[in-house]
User: Which sequence fits this backbone?
């Protein structure tokens, strides 16, 4: 071992995938497995596919290209509306893209024509969370624009909730989505194949008592990887919440006071920590910091309490003195996972542990 590492149990992730895919299938919903929190790791993509997802989704073209480069030719979806500067790459990747801007759609069509390809499009509609989305009254106009461009194919209509403002997917907004799909079909004379209701935050709604209407597609990342739904961060019944660990090495462990001495002002992050004097404790420092993860989104092991973090140090109260080279294992939340995956200082170990 060298340095902090993320260990990812692909069997547990595969298990989570299969359970979610099967539950969703009973409501006629297909699942796109979202790989962005793991930078499009090809072994993750293969695990998701082997466990029944209908496609793979990522927000970054680089990650989609990484999976394509690894020989993964399954259906893919770009989850962030394309940058105008990347339309050629988006078209060549063969991934469907989500879209909200007429100008970008025109650029995609031009790029597809030059490449001699047809590009699949899902239009995203704004239903209250105020991230990306076409205003509902503009949807038919944008759909007509897609239909007028020969190298584009209108595959679906979708929405995204709970990301910026935590707006909950509900009978109301999901009903509105179904109605918008039907009005677009009748005003534009098309049939919409995919109706994508949202992300992991849609699971309570999808498995709840209300009819799912036209929604037949969800895009799931966090629930598959961490076994939680993101609205309340509740564990989902039957899923593994311990598939991913962040392991860090002890570099110092000493008996120290809890109260700093000297006059305190702002720390290096502009914070002025409140300190309660609890006498002396075992203060243990781990070699992982804010540059490597979201230290506020880590759950420590029993008996270890995270006190503070700087760029490179995680300061933990432990029950006993530890030795340098011992390690502690933390459970990352979504934000911690995303950041550790992106840190070049954190090793990524994706394992498959056959269970029988
Ligand atoms: C990231 C993302 C998802 C997946 O969200 P989770 O909460 O991880 O399930 C779905 N759709 C879009 C558009 C995204 O950007």
Assistant:
């Amino acid at each position: 071992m060298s340095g902090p590492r993320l260990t990812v149990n692909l069997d547990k992730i595969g298990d989570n995938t299969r359970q979610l895919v099967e539950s969703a299938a009973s409501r006629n919903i297909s699942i796109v497995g979202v790989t962005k929190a793991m930078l499009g790791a090809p072994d993750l993509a293969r695990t998701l596919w082997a466990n029944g997802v209908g496609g793979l989704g990522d927000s970054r073209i680089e990650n989609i290209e990484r999976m394509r480069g690894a020989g993964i030719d399954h259906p893919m979806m770009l989850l962030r509306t394309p940058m105008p500067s990347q339309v050629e790459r988006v078209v060549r990747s063969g991934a469907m893209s989500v879209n909200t801007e007429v100008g970008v759609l025109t650029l995609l069509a031009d790029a597809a024509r030059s490449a001699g390809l047809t590009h699949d499009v899902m239009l995203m509609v704004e239903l209250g969370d105020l991230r990306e989305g076409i205003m509902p009254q503009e949807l038919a106009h944008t759909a007509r624009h897609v239909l007028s461009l020969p190298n584009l194919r209108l595959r679906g209509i979708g929405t995204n909730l709970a990301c910026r403002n935590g707006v909950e997917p509900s009978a109301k907004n999901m009903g509105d989505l179904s109605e918008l799909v039907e009005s677009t079909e009748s005003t534009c004379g098309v049939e919409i194949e995919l109706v994508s209701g949202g992300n992991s935050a849609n699971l309570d709604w999808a498995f709840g008592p209300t009819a799912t209407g036209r929604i037949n597609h969800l895009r799931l990342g966090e629930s598959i990887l961490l076994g939680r739904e993101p609205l309340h961060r509740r564990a989902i019944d039957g899923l593994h919440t311990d598939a991913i660990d962040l392991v860090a090495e002890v570099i110092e462990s000493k008996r120290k006071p809890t109260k700093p001495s000297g006059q305190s002002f702002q720390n290096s992050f502009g914070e002025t920590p409140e300190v309660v004097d609890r006498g002396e404790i075992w203060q243990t420092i781990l070699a992982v910091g804010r540059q490597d993860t979201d230290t506020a989104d880590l759950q420590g092991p029993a008996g270890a309490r995270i006190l503070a973090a700087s760029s490179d140090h995680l300061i933990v109260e432990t029950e006993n003195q530890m030795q340098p080279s011992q390690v502690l294992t933390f459970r990352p939340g979504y934000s911690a996972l995303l950041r550790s995956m992106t840190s070049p200082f954190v090793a990524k170990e994706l394992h498959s542990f056959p269970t029988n």
